Amino acid sequence: MSNVTLFGFPRSTFVSVVGLILTAKGVPYTFHDTEDEMYLPIHLQRHPFGRVPVLQHDDFMLYETSAIAAYVDEVLPGPKFTPVDPRQRARMNQWMCNLNSYFYPEMIYHVSHERMVYPELGIPGNDLIVQRAMPKVIQALEVMEKELSDGRPFIVGDSLTMADFFLLPTLFGFSLTPEGKQLLPKFPAVQAWADRMAALPGVIRFRASLPPRAPIPHAREWVHHHRPAA
Ligand SMILES: N[C@@H](CCC(=O)N[C@@H](CS)C(=O)NCC(=O)O)C(=O)O
């Protein structure tokens, strides 16, 4: 029986980052769906900020995706996704920070939530929030396109690193929005990277393990808690 449990809800991009890394390493894990528990004491005990993912390994509980990813790659068996070379490792960390600071907030919080998550719950999306985010989305894609423009297969170079797994779910979530469909074809290196990632056996296995895409009921609360001001 697996002694690794991943807590989260299936549409979460950060939960997918951890799921992708565990799957690519070949680590069996149990997925615990927190959809109905997000605001209950049982979940706040796992994550005092009420977010996901949370990882349990034996009796060790850990939250925050970057901390979880580093722990998983260091401690659990399977291929390593952290470069040994300090400069490559620093570049990987830089790209994980890029995702956290410049990609996820704009592409997911501002665009995907307004275009997909809220409308799926009957809550109208706010065009102003999307329009305000778009210059920053374009800047992020331009930076990524430039990084990949020397023909490297992965974001840090020849080898797959955790940074690729950090970027993929956010880029995928954005690609489903009208803005993503219109914009991404203008970034051929980013598109080629996404296609290359989608063809990796671990990514195929992880995606096949997900339930069919469904609305996120607890996202109704986000309107009150953390929707950006229009
Ligand atoms: N800094 C956190 C961010 C995690 C995060 O924002 N997760 C989102 C899902 S992608 C979440 O928990 N949202 C649930 C909510 O706000 O109710 C990390 O890296 O783990």
Q: Can you give a write-up of this model?
A:
The chain is of the alpha+beta class and 230 residues long. It folds into two domains: 78 residues, 3-Layer(aba) Sandwich (Glutaredoxin), CATH 3.40.30.10; 124 residues, Glutathione S-transferase Yfyf (Class Pi), Chain A, domain 2. It has a four-stranded mixed sheet with strand order 2-1-3-4, with helices on one face. The longest helix has 35 residues. The chain is globular, with a radius of gyration of 17 Å. The relative contact order is 0.15. The model has no long low-confidence stretch (mean pLDDT 97). The structure holds glutathione. Glutathione binds next to helix 1 and helix 3.
- Main-sheet strand order equals 2-1-3-4
- Distance N terminus to C terminus? 48 Å
- What is the CATH topology assignment of the largest domain? Glutathione S-transferase Yfyf (Class Pi), Chain A, domain 2
What is the SS-derived class?
A: alpha+beta
Ranges where pLDDT stays below 50 over 5 or more residues in a row are: none
Determine the number of helices (DSSP H or I, runs of at least 4 residues): 10
Q: Please, how many domains?
A: 2
**Strand-residue fraction?**
5-15%
Helix content: 55-70%
Mean pLDDT metric = 97
Number of strands: 4
Q: List bound small molecules.
A: glutathione
